[in-house]
Amino acid sequence: MPATLCAELNGLSEISASILLLADGLACEHGIMLLADVVRTSTQVSGTRSRLAKVSLIGDLLLQCARQVVDGTTPAEEIGLATWYLSGTLRQRRTGIELSSLHRSTSSPSALSDLAPSDTSTVTLSELDAVMQQASELGGAGSSAVRQDLFLGLVARLTAPERELILGLLRGGLRQGALESVVMTAVAGAGGVAVDGVRRAVATRGELAVVAQALLLDGPGALDLFRLSVGQGVSPMLASSAKTVADALAKTGPAGVEWKLDGIRAQIHKRGNEIHVLTRSLEDITDRVPEVVELISSLPVNSAIFDGELIALNQDRRPKPFQQTGSRTASRVDPEVGRERTPLTAYLFDVLHLDGTDLIDEPANVRRGVLEGAVPLLHLTPRLRVDDVTQPAQVEAATAFAADAVARGHEGVVVKAENAGYEMGRRGAGWVKVKPVHTLDLVILAVERGNGRRSGWLSNIHLGARDPAGRFGPAGGFVMLGKTFKGLTDEMLRWQSAELPRHATGAADGYVLRLRPEVVVEIAFDGVQTSPRYPSGLALRFARVVRHRPDKTANESDSIEMVEALNER
Description:
Elements: H1 17-23, H2 35-46, H3 51-71, H4 77-86, H5 99-104, H6 125-137, H7 143-155, H8 160-171, H9 180-191, H10 195-205, H11 208-218, E1 238-241, H12 245-252, E2 255-260, E3 264-271, E4 274-278, H13 290-298, E5 303-312, H14 322-330, H15 335-341, E6 344-354, E7 357-358, H16 364-374, E8 383-386, H17 392-407, E9 412-417, E10 427-434, E11 438-449, E12 458-467, E13 477-484, H18 490-499, E14 512-514, E15 520-525, E16 527-530, E17 538-541, E18 544-548, H19 560-568
Parallel strand pairs: 1-10
Antiparallel strand pairs: 2-8, 2-9, 3-4, 3-5, 5-6, 6-7, 9-10, 11-12, 11-14, 11-15, 12-13, 15-18, 16-17
C-alpha cells in the first residue's frame, strides 16, 4: 500500500480493501467533516453534465468522510448525512420550518437578508442535523416562533453558499443534477461493489444513507445484512408508463392487467398479531387505519408482506376524491371518528413474503396465485389475464377492461408482466401503467427565479385558467390553478428566461416576477383536485409542461369551466 495513505488506516481489517485502493492518492485530511465540504462538492456536481464526473465527485467526498471516521475526528453517522444531503434531501421528512414566513419576517423578500452571512465555515453535518431534528420535534403553542429562532440561529453561522444549500434542501431539492440514483452509483463505486447490490440493500432497508454507512465502514460483506424482513419496510416496486394498453402489452408480453387505483399505496406487514401499515415513503400509519388492521388480522396467515392500495369509496363503490383518502391517512384525529366519516377499503395486488417464504424473486403469476390463496376476492385488485399479446381479441379485451376501470372512476390500469419478479425500489419494465393524460392550454401569471442548477434562469411558473364570467375576480381575468417546473428542458428554460421578462408588470417581488397574462403554455396533468389554496378551490395534480404555445393568444387558452368539467368527470 502506498505510503501516501494515512497510517491510521493500516491494520484496520473492518475497512474494505476497496476503500483503501480508492482512497489512494487523496490527501489524508484530519479534522471534522464540515457542511462546507458538502457545499463544495454540490457546487462541483452542479457544474458538470457528466454523470461519470458527478459519481466521482460524490464518491470522493464519501471516501473522505469514511477516512475521517476511521481517524476518529468525524462521527460515523456523518457518512449517512452526507449521503442524504448530496441526494438533495434532509433526514427529517418534515421540519416545520416555513421559509415563506421567514421571508416575511425580514426587511427584504429575498432569502433571509437581514442576517449577514458568516465569513468562515464552522457548521458540521451533525450540527445541521441536530437543528433540523429539534425543529421537527417541536410542537404546541409558540412552537413556530421557537422553531424560527432556532433556524435563524443556525443561519447566522452559515456562509452564503451554505445558506443556499440548506434553503435548497428545505425546498425539497438542490437541482444539482444528482438524484439518488447518481448518489447510489457513487456509494457503490466507493465501496467497490456492483450498484445492483447496493440497490437491493437500499430496497430492503429503505434508506441509502444507512447502506452507505455500513458499506463504507464495514466493507462489501455488510450488504449481506440487508435482507427482506417482516416488519421492516422495503422500497416499493414502481411502474413505467405507456400511452395505450397495446403499447404496454408489447413491452411486457403475457401479463395481468389490473386496475390502477387513485389511493394511498400501502405496504402491510403481519407477524402473528403484530401488524404494520406503511405508506409509499414507509411512514407508519397503523394506528390511523384500524379497519385495515382488522382485515389483515382476519387473514389465515402467520407472517406476510403485502403490497396494495387504500382508498375511500362511495356507496356505489366509485372512489371519493383523492384528498379524502389522503386526508384520512394523514389525519391524527381519533381513528374511529375518521373511520366513521371516511372508511377505507384495502385492495391488495402483490405479496412479497408469506409464512416464511420470500417471494420477491418469483414471477408475478406465481405471486398472484399465492395472493389469491390468502386474500378474499373482494380485497384483490380486479385483474384480466392476457396470455397471447399477438391476438387482437385479447388486446381489445384488455383495452376495454382499462376503459371500464376509468369509467368506474379509477386512474387506469397497470400491466404486469407474468414473468417479472418484484423489483424493489425500481421503475422497471415489469410493470407498465396506462392512464388517460389530460392537457390544458393555460396562461403564465408569474414565474419564479431558479436556484441550484437552474440558478440564473426563470423556472417555476404560475398557471392560470381564463375566468370569462368573472366568478373569481374581474370578468375576463384569470384564476390560478397551481405552479410547476416539471417537464421544463434546458431549451425551454432558456426560451422562457428570455421571453417572460418582456411581459413583466414591474420589478420582481423577490423570487417572483409577476407577468401580464399573455404567454400560453400547454400543461399535462393527471387530474384535478380540490384545494383551498386557490380562489377556484381547484388545483392540477402532477402538472408538467409539454410546450410553450407562442402561437396562441391568452383568449385561446382554456377556461375554468373546462377545468371544473374535468373535475366533475
